[in-house]
Amino acid sequence: MSDPSTASIVSTPGAHPTDSAAPATAGQPQSNEKPRGLLGDAWRDLRRKPLFWISATLIVIFLLMAAFPALFAPGDAVNGSLSRSLDKPSANGWFGYDVQGRDVYARVIYGARASIVVAVLSVLGTLLIGGTMGIISGYRGGWVDALLSRIADVFFGLPFVLGAIVILTTFNGSGAGNSKAQIMGLVTASLIVLSWPVVMRLMRSSVLATKEADYIVAARALGAGTGRIILKHLLPNCLAPLLVYGTIMVGSFIGAEATLSFLGVGLKSPVVSWGIMISDGQNFVRVAPGLVFFPAAFLVTAVLSFVMLGESVREALDPKLR
Hints:
Layout: H1 4-11, H2 17-25, H3 38-46, H4 50-67, H5 104-140, H6 142-156, H7 160-171, H8 180-210, H9 214-221, H10 226-263, H11 274-281, H12 290-317
């Protein structure tokens, strides 16, 4: 982009540079602010939104709970004493104790780790697989696009809950004897397998709308290879929709993991999860409603935090909504 003062000099023959530039800058302080890109404008808009700061603060708290649960709950989340079975909330146990005498507060805090780790890994895997398939499909076109689109349609035809139940009961049924890492890996894999087609279609549509842009055509005319065009030009300009969808998807996967665990096909003991706690406490909801209320409250708050953050990012990245 040419400098305005230079353009005025060229368009006015014989004019001295200082004469044409002086009226434009007289009495006005020169700004040294650099031009911002899409992410710069988005960050400037996000800083003005209270909803963004509220959701971001809650997410940071949940991430700290998942990474360092002992900072929030020094108690034991796995072992308990039957002498404290179904005890009411007290100074020793803020949320009370479950039927096996385990500290509900400690279990709620430690339950954030499994739920958030499964959700984040599932989102990363979904974005990686679906994004790669979408870029290949949208950029190559032709029979490659048709083949990948038909494969995605097959997975689209699988109901999410039913497909997850089939996968998890096959590999994580009763008596499977899987470890904590294996159980979390199976739940993560099932979420990725059933969710990547959505990301694939989202990335494909972004690539189709971008690959014929002038700068892509110019790069291709200058001899840029396919890899350089995709990594340097297509990918940076197609990441905004994936960033928004990925943020919202973290909250959705936290809820999906809790649903599968509640149904008994997701995470299982000895893993501590909000869905497992709700499933274990449903039979005692009249005697000890806190067994269901506290993990459900943390679950809803975590899901809403990620969804609100995603909505804030979407509004900041979409010029039509500013």
